[in-house]
Write a structure and sequence with these properties.
Length: about 650
């Protein structure tokens, strides 16, 4: 490795956009030059190329930081050094050049005295000076142009990638909002339907209550009419009784005693009938009064229930109005979502068109690079052919030199004379020597012109470039996959924390309800050992039976620990109900009192789950709906016996 080599000159220049072609023409062959730190290092690199036969190269000695010339116009044109940020050595090369927009402006500027001694370059790459005009059609792009195009394409691709990523995140956020809004609408509709069902049920209850109220009012009116009729009948009977008494008092005693005995008996019977009617009327009046009081109480009760129903209906109406507003807002949001999605799709389509254009440009440049590589391969093949010819000439030259040495030795040994004397005496020898020397000089000249060259450099570069591209794509895919996995793990951790926190809160609430049932007068609770780290926290159970000061389960007796563990299991069952539970002799060691409490708790689980209990306790079997057991038949075979229990008998 050579010391002091800083890379290519094209990589150390910063050119304003649009001036790459002009700067490449101004620098000429220096566009492909190599940057070194000192002249000695450049000379050492040149000697290395010559010793290794690696061909020719241009070296630019660079020292200090990069800068640019001030943009002071000369004859209406800008200096070439003002559009480049480069080392001083490069700026000194660009000082004689001015930049014009087109060829007419360049020719017009040369007539100005201020541009004397300057050369003018157009943006299209034409060069005009007092004694030189260069330009014309298109040519192969220089390394400066390729580097600028590559940097511009990289910037555009980066910007497009950021834009696409931003739009993708916005699209994902919009879709998330749309999904959330849709779920909200569904939830609101479900809640609305539930409220409608509740309102229908309450309306039905209100109808029944109103019907009962109307029936009670009709019964009260009927009772009042019956009471009024009975009072009128009583008053009429009292009037008849008073009239009979008056008539009886006005009659003479003798006449009453002797002549009108039949009348007296008749009046006595009427009086008895009247008294009996009065008694019946009084009984009916009492009955009617009691029924009226009961009806009044029933009416008051029905009015209270009616008021409660009206209040509930008013509350439901307010809730329904609120739900309707939420539903309207959700529907409005749903209407805006297609517009947002359409806009995002439009932007995405335009970006895709831009990406396709850039991809087409990249493919075009790749094709151009392929053509250049093919040309380079053809040049390599031509070089190999020439190199093979040079090797053959060298081999012939070497053989001739060996033959010449052998002949020289033989001439000296056999003829006792040197080769020059012998050649002067032989015309044929003179012609042969001149021909050989001429061919030798021609071969050496061709060899010096060709220089040394590595024919496998382009293949090695292409292979390394393809390998680098493949590894970069793989690394990018791995980065994306890792980011996706990290996001999924983060979402799962967050969801697990929410689910665990909710389940723990529900279990804690149920445990605080169940424990006092199994331990009357006692208290129990559960807590997290690391509340701030829900993914690695433990659960600590604290209980305090009545009459004891201990709180940790490890200090309780065996039966108390067992019952406390059962309380925790029951709390979990209640917090997150399951369709089935299987309990295997959990009450085997309990006494009658604790067994009764446990059975009450187990019986409360029937409303949400089915329980299969393996037990030998009679009281546990008594609360079951069906019993299953294993019995041995007379032939010694086991038999499953089942019996459903009818608790109504």
């Amino acid at each position: 490795k050579l010391a002091g080599i800083k890379g290519l000159l094209a990589e150390s220049l910063s050119i304003e956009k649009g001036y790459e072609v002009a700067i490449a023409v101004a620098l000429g062959a220096l566009s492909d030059a190599v940057v070194t730190a000192s002249r000695e290092q450049a000379v050492a690199a040149l000697q290395y190329l010559r010793s290794e036969g690696l061909g020719r190269a241009d070296f630019v000695v660079v020292s200090g930081d990069s800068s640019s010339r001030p943009r002071t116009e000369v004859a209406g044109l800008i200096p070439a050094g003002s559009v480049v940020k480069a080392p001083e050595a490069v700026l000194s090369v660009l000082d004689p050049f001015l930049i014009a927009n087109d060829l007419q402006s360049a020719v017009a500027a040369l007539s100005n005295k201020a541009a004397a001694g300057k050369s003018v370059i157009t943006l299209e790459g034409d060069l005009v000076s007092e004694s030189l005009v260069r330009g014309g059609g298109t040519k192969a792009p220089s390394k400066l142009e390729l580097a600028a195009e590559r940097e511009s394409a990289s910037e555009q691709l980066s910007a497009l990638a950021k834009t696409i990523e931003k739009l993708a995140s916005e699209l994902e956020a919009t879709r998330s909002k749309a999904l959330a809004a849709e779920q909200g609408v569904r939830s609101a509709l479900a809640t609305l339907q539930q409220h409608d069902a509740e309102l229908a049920a309450r309306a039905e209850r209100v109808g029944r209550i109103i019907a009962q109220h109307e029936a009670a009012k009709a019964e009260v009116l009927k009772l009042e009419r019956d009471s009024q009729q009975l009072l009128e009948s009583k008053n009429q009977a009292e009037l008849d009784l008073e009239g009979l008494k008056t008539k009886l008092s006005q009659m003479p005693a003798a006449q009453v005693a002797s002549e009108n005995e039949a009348v007296r008996q008749e009046l006595s019977q009427k009086l008895e009938v009247a008294r009996q009617a009065e008694l019946e009327i009084r009984i009916s009046v009492g009955t009617v009064s009691e029924r009226r009081i009961a009806a009044s109480k029933l009416v008051a009760t029905l009015k209270g229930r009616l008021n409660e129903v009206n209040a509930a209906m008013e509350k439901d109406r307010l809730i329904l109005e609120q739900r309707s507003k939420q539903l309207d807002s959700a529907q409005s949001a749903m209407k805006l979502i297609p517009l947002a999605l359409a806009k995002v799709e439009s932007i995405t389509s335009s970006l895709r068109v831009q990406v396709r254009d850039l991809e087409a440009q990249r493919i075009q440049r790749t094709d151009r690079l392929t053509v250049l590589r093919q040309q380079a391969a053809q040049l390599d093949q031509r070089f190999n052919e020439l190199n093979q010819g040079v090797h053959e000439v060298e081999m012939q030259n070497h053989e001739l030199r060996l033959n010449l040495a052998n002949l020289t030795e033989r001439v000296s040994a056999e003829l006792a004379m040197d080769v020059d004397t012998l050649l002067t005496e032989t015309v044929l020898g003179e012609e042969t020597r001149e021909e050989l020397e001429k061919e030798l000089r021609s071969a050496e000249q061709k060899l010096n012109q060709l220089g040394a060259f590595n024919p496998l450099a382009l293949e090695e570069f292409a292979a390394l470039e393809e390998r680098h591209k493949y590894l970069s794509e793989q690394l990018e895919d791995l980065g994306k996959a890792r980011a996706d996995l990290v996001g999924i793990i983060k979402d799962l951790d967050t969801k697990m924390q929410h689910i665990f926190a909710a389940a723990f809160d529900d279990t804690k609430r149920e445990f605080e309800k169940v424990f006092p049932i199994l331990f009357p007068g006692g208290t129990g609770s559960i807590s997290l050992t690391e509340p701030e780290n829900l993914l690695e926290t433990g659960v600590e159970v604290s209980v305090r039976p009545v009459g004891k000061r201990i709180e940790r389960m490890s200090l309780l007796s065996g039966g108390e620990r067992s019952l406390a563990a059962v309380a925790l299991l029951i709390a979990i069952f209640k917090a997150r109900p399951s369709p089935f539970y299987v309990l295997d002799e959990v009450e085997a060691a309990l006494d009658d009192a604790n067994l009764g409490r446990l059975l009450d708790v187990i019986d409360s689980l029937r409303s949400s789950s089915q329980l299969i209990i393996v037990t030998h306790q009679k009281r546990t079997m008594e609360i079951a709906d069906a019993l299953y057991g294993v019995s041995m038949r007379q032939d010694g075979m086991s038999q499953v016996v089942g019996q459903k229990l009818d608790k109504d008998k």
